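Handout, section 3.2

Students often ask what a structure token actually looks like in practice. Rather than define it abstractly, here is a full record for Signal peptidase I. The first block is the sequence as you would receive it.
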Amino acid sequence: MTVDESSETVEAAGNTAGKPAGRGEAMVPRPDQAAHDQSPQSGDAPGSPDAPDGAAPGESPEPSEPAAPPAPRKWWQWLYAPFVAVWRFAFPKKPRPFIVELPFLLAIALVLAFIIKTFLVQAFVIPSGSMQQTLEINDRVLVNRFSNWLGHEPNRGDIVVFQDPGNWLDAEPVKPKNVFSKTLTAIGLLPEDNGDLIKRVIGVGGDHVESKGNGAPVTVNGVPLKEDGYLYPSNTPSMEPFSVDVPKDHLWVMGDHREVSVDSRAHIKSVTGGFVPVGNVVGIAVLKVWPPDHFGTLPVPSTFKQSFQALAAPGAVPVAAFALAVPITVVRRRRKLRTAEALDALGL
């Protein structure tokens, strides 16, 4: 009786193995299906399903080797590292809110203003009437400072801004400044209006500058200047007589408003001799920018485009004449020798 009941149970299980389980009935897997489910899948390594190929069952995978430390920077890489940092700081990959960007923008603007003022151009205020009518009081001018860094020296006719060579400012008006305005001026956001002077270059190193006075014209190396185009109306070239030889690397400067300008003539008896060292030159004024109705360039007057070199050095003319005469004499001598040889060959 027991065997028969077992057979019926096995048979019933065999019949239901291939049929889907009914509602409330348990699913009984077939023996071959259970064996297949327990076998390792293709592509999986023996042991744990997550174990890598070649790993034995029950063994953990070997840890990977640590990455090598980065190589130290070369010396030349440190040179452009600050520029890279500034670039990433100024142009981040992710945009920042405007309230966060504003301090950075102000800092960058101040740095750029300082660089432009120090190396490129700088604005100045005209404090006095010594350069009228070329420059009026309170005019703003731009001064080219880049030429100084290139080694360019001022030439005759240039309007230059220069530092006081020795107590020249005692006769010029100086406006007082507070700490705030001094800071903005140092950065370049405000124009300079004290501590420097502005005049026109009349003579450079090696020149002989002279005037007989009483309205006589100013001469440079014996060549008279025609200054009617830029002198203040009713002013004469010079009422004071003077005669100077400009030392090397120095300048002789004069204002366009000759009757009120305290320039090289007024300091001719001082320690400086009235000369301005080239090293004191801040830059050359090139443009009037304010007020708008005064806007314009500051070109060199045509009278300074004459040739001043012929008499610049004593004996220049005799030396030049001798240099031209030597080859002419040599050619004439060779022709005479050839003629004499030809006559001797003919027996004449």
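Discussion prompt for tutorial groups: The mean pLDDT is 74. How would you have guessed this from the sequence alone?
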